[in-house]
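Support reply, case 0932

Customer input (verbatim):
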Amino acid sequence: MSDHPEAPVAPVEAYEPPYYVAVFTTVRTQDQSGYSETNARMEELVKDVPGFLGMDHAQTPGGLGITVGYFRDADALAKWRSNAEHRAAQKRGQASWYRSYTLHVAKVERSHGFTRAQVPQSPTPG
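Our regenerated output:
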């Protein structure tokens, strides 16, 4: 969900399954008035949901946006889905910001990750 270019570039860590993911894929309209503010508010709100694990977001140059929200259990996801401000933002998105979207919810049964060790840079000869 983030439009913040200064956000660190790192995926959400792999958690011990099972947990849930909500994959929200969008194509936006030209009129994005109010979107950034609402998006920032949703990012604040979801962090307060007990069981929220994190979020990944990517945007293609062609305009396809993908946001993946990670939740410890179905109850955490249900709390987010039923949040009143989130519901209002969904309605505004349908009315104004999204040309199309899909939402896929899945239970994660397997998860692992990899992080390359940081190798110190040697000074370049001058």
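We compared this against your earlier run and they match. Two observations from our side: The chain has a mean pLDDT of 91. Strands lie at 19-28, 52-59, 64-71, 98-108. Please reopen the case if you see a mismatch on your end.
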